[in-house]
Write a structure and sequence with these properties.
The chain has 284 residues and is an alpha/beta fold. The protein has eight helices and eleven strands. It folds into two domains: 192 residues, Spore Coat Polysaccharide Biosynthesis Protein SpsA, Chain A (Alpha-Beta Complex); 75 residues, no CATH class. The N and C termini lie far apart (47 Å).
């Protein structure tokens, strides 16, 4: 049973803005506390001055330790505070009004057993969106980190996020591990989470009626390296992730208009470091 008394939110910051503070207000009233893990090089605690001090725990790292390590630190703090479930959020995400309370209520009614984490439907702030109230619960292979309700007991049982991944595929690897150990991941399709693009930008193709996010060049390094590692760790999902990797390379070669050759170079470096078992932050 998920209750606000034992629910703590974790949000990872990186160069936060005032808009990110506004995002916190969409769920601050429905959790016991919000733990802010700040990966920025400077202290940003003053941004929290407008929020209730009793509700916020600010933990600056003064260094980018990556999303995986930041989430793991937040989980440790949440455990010490007696949390049973944890809401993991990106700084660029927020819930529509009253959605978080409804989200908790719907999760508590879920008939699917052994659920390790719940996830809302995510959509970009630029996209039109309608919720699906006819098919509320949907089992998923993987989900993005933001907006997840994570069972802390199961998290501690299966082990934390992989620090060496740094960013990208952190959520995928954790989800694959949960599946291998017999747990379920459930998307709650009647709940929406609005997600800003952040450090990427959306590119649409009118003639193909398709769009995708153009991530920055550095992200291509992590994506390629970590996809290859997920394939090695979970060969049962090789087909799925090999397809994702081919799609990434194809998009970059054919459609990308932003630093194409730097991205191609970084994808090669990701392949090189994977084969030489080099992980952690980019170091080239």
């Amino acid at each position: 049973m998920i209750t606000s008394e034992y629910l703590i939110a974790i949000v990872v910051w990186y160069y936060p803005t005032q808009q990110n503070i506004q995002n916190l207000t969409s769920y601050i009233d429905d959790v016991k506390k919000i733990i802010i893990i700040d990966n920025s090089p400077s202290d940003n605690k003053l941004l929290l001055s407008a929020l209730p001090e009793r509700k916020c725990i600010y933990h600056p790292n003064y260094n980018n330790i990556g999303i995986a390590s930041a989430l793991n630190r937040g989980m440790q703090i949440a455990s010490c505070l007696g949390a049973k479930w944890v809401l993991t959020m990106d700084q660029d995400s927020y819930f529509d009004e009253h959605n978080i309370a409804q989200y908790i209520h719907i999760c508590n009614q879920c008939p699917i057993p052994e659920v390790a984490l719940f996830s809302p439907l995510q959509h970009l702030d630029t996209d039109p969106f309608t919720v699906d109230v006819e098919h509320i619960y949907e089992k998923r292979l993987t989900v993005m980190t933001s907006g997840n309700l994570v069972n802390l007991r199961i998290y501690q049982e299966v082990g934390g996020f992989k620090d060496e991944f740094f960013i990208d595929l952190v959520d995928d690897e954790y989800c694959c591990r949960l599946h291998r150990l017999g747990y379920n991941i459930v998307c709650v399709r009647s709940i929406s989470l609005v997600h800003h693009i952040g450090f990427g930008r959306k590119r649409a193709f009118r003639f193909f009626k398709k769009s995708f996010i153009q991530h920055n060049a550095l992200r291509h390094y992590y994506i390629v390296r970590n996809i290859l590692e997920v394939i090695r760790l979970y060969p049962e999902y090789k087909y799925y992730y090999s397809k994702q990797l081919r799609k990434r390379i194809k998009r970059c070669l054919l459609y990308d208009s932003d630093n194409k050759w730097t991205k191609i170079k970084n994808m090669y470096l990701g392949w090189y470091d994977y084969h030489h078992r080099i992980f952690g932050p980019f170091n080239h």
